[in-house]
Write a structure and sequence with these properties.
Layout: H1 3-17, E1 19-23, H2 27-44, E2 48-53, E3 56-61, H3 71-77
Antiparallel strand pairs: 1-3, 2-3
């Protein structure tokens, strides 16, 4: 896994859509990806939160208006992009 490339893709989606998620097989790869995501966010001044959810890594902009929707919609939004 190329954490730098994947983090760049996820940050671009997160900035545009408020969130991004990707399936990541190993916990070590997930930790590396989350670290790169946090570094990227700090460098660009974007406030985010990251999480490991099942087999996925999720990144969400803290100012995104995502949380007012019903549970089914939120689950759909947090389903990893293949």
């Amino acid at each position: 896994m190329d954490a730098t490339r994947l983090a760049a893709e996820m940050m671009a989606q997160c900035v545009g859509e408020g969130q991004a998620s990707r399936t990541v097989a190993s916990d070590a790869d997930a930790a590396a990806l989350r670290s790169v995501l946090r570094e990227s966010a700090r460098a660009s001044g974007v406030r985010i939160r990251t999480a490991r959810v099942g087999g996925a890594v999720v990144v969400v902009r803290t100012d995104a208006a995502l949380w007012g929707e019903d549970t089914a919609t939120m689950r759909s939004k947090l389903t990893p992009t293949p």
